[in-house]
Amino acid sequence: MKMKLLISALLLSTSALFAQVAKPIETPYVDYPIEAGDHDEVAQQYCLICHSFGYVLNQGKKSRPYWTGTVQKMVNEFKAPIPKEDQQTIINYLVKHYGYEVQSGQH
């Protein structure tokens, strides 16, 4: 009896895997324009390994300390393979195109 219940439960739980969709599913394409110049190829080379550039754009305009911390988090916590010499290049690119410099006295 237990075996029949187990088989029934297994069949019911896997039946959704074999369901068919009547029409094709279309995934929308979203273009995330990347600002060219200032070593954008370095940012693309390393950032796009793990996520789309939309992730960068969705952050909004952020300060140099924010982008510095973000790049450091990617390297230290998420183990992004970004060489030390390219980290500052990426930070400079992000600040110039997707951020701002903090003036003294600002937070």
UniProtKB/TrEMBL annotation:
Which of UniProt's keywords are assigned here? Oxidoreductase, Signal
Q: Which InterPro entries match?
A: Cyt_c-like_dom_sf
* Single GO term (MF): sulfite dehydrogenase activity
Q: Which residues form the signal peptide?
A: 1-19
Where, if anywhere, are coiled coils annotated?
none
Q: Carries keyword Magnesium?
A: no
> What EC number(s) would the UniProt record show?
1.8.2.1
Protein name, per record: Sulfite dehydrogenase (Cytochrome) subunit SorB
Species source reads Sulfuricurvum kujiense (strain ATCC BAA-921 / DSM 16994 / JCM 11577 / YK-1)
